[in-house]
Design brief:
It is a single chain. This protein has 136 residues and is an alpha+beta fold. The chain has a single domain, classed as Peptide Deformylase. It has 3 helices and 5 strands. A 5-stranded antiparallel beta sheet has the order 1-2-3-4-5. A hairpin with a 4-residue loop joins strand 2 and strand 3. The chain is globular and about 35 Å long.
Length: 136
């Protein structure tokens, strides 16, 4: 189901809770909402649709990657950039890493460890920040 985008900084500033297998519907809502906003959005966190669970989605070109309880375990190649967010107006400067390694649970509820680089790594970092209550 397509959900409304939350823009309340107080709600978005609260850390998200661990996701469970019972939260699969939230992942489907994230997919639908991302698709509905695909012209202006490349990733989302569950709190952006009003659910404080540790779930993100990132557009990887031809597919969307859903991550439950993602944790960035390695970072390399610090750089400065500017980002926008559906929950905020305009763009803001931020610092990201070129390459990251993430541990997460996938849609099949299997634990995975994967390396990402470039723009996809940037998207994942932005969404993981949301889970911690951090806004750009």
């Amino acid at each position: 189901m397509i959900k409304q985008i939350i823009r309340d900084p107080i709600f978005l500033g609260i850390k998200s809770e661990e996701a469970t297998k019972a939260d699969m519907d939230v992942a489907n809502d994230l997919k639908d909402t991302l698709m509905a906003n695909r012209e202006r959005c490349v990733g989302m966190a569950a709190n952006m649709i009003g659910i404080r669970k540790r779930i993100i989605i990132a557009n990887a070109g031809m597919e969307n990657i859903v991550m439950f309880n993602p944790v960035i375990v390695k970072k390399e190649g610090l750089f400065e950039t500017e980002e926008g967010c559906l929950s905020l107006d305009g763009v803001r400067k931020t610092t990201r890493y070129q390459t990251i390694e993430v541990e997460f649970t996938d849609m099949s509820w299997k634990r995975r460890k994967q390396k990402y680089s470039g723009f996809l790594a940037q998207i994942i970092q932005h969404e993981c920040d949301h889970l911690e209550g951090i806004m750009i």
